[in-house]
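Q: Here's a chain of 105 amino acids. Please give me its 3D structure as tokens.
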Amino acid sequence: MRRHPRTGLPVLKTGRVWCYELATGKLPAEDAGGWDEILERVRSWNFPALPSEVMGEIVRKCWMEEYEDAEAVRRDVVAFLQEAGFEVDGDSLKGFDAAQLLRDG
């Protein structure tokens, strides 16, 4: 089993943290102790709930290890994006310019 170099957690467990960060722009418990607190939450299954508009159900399924693999997560993210009105073309969003977000922010 592959482990994340910084956390020592199995890579799929580390993916739970990544899913949360992707949805919110911050790490879970980022404001309450950094990596030690994050790792404790992962180990104790103490996960923050998120609203559906920020992929809350996808993040919950990641936390609860309900996905078999990364491809299953990808399928749900693509479906979420399509339901939100985005056009997905392979691994890209048609007409989406991430660099524009940085320029506008």
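Q: Can you summarize the key feature?
A: The chain has a mean pLDDT of 76.
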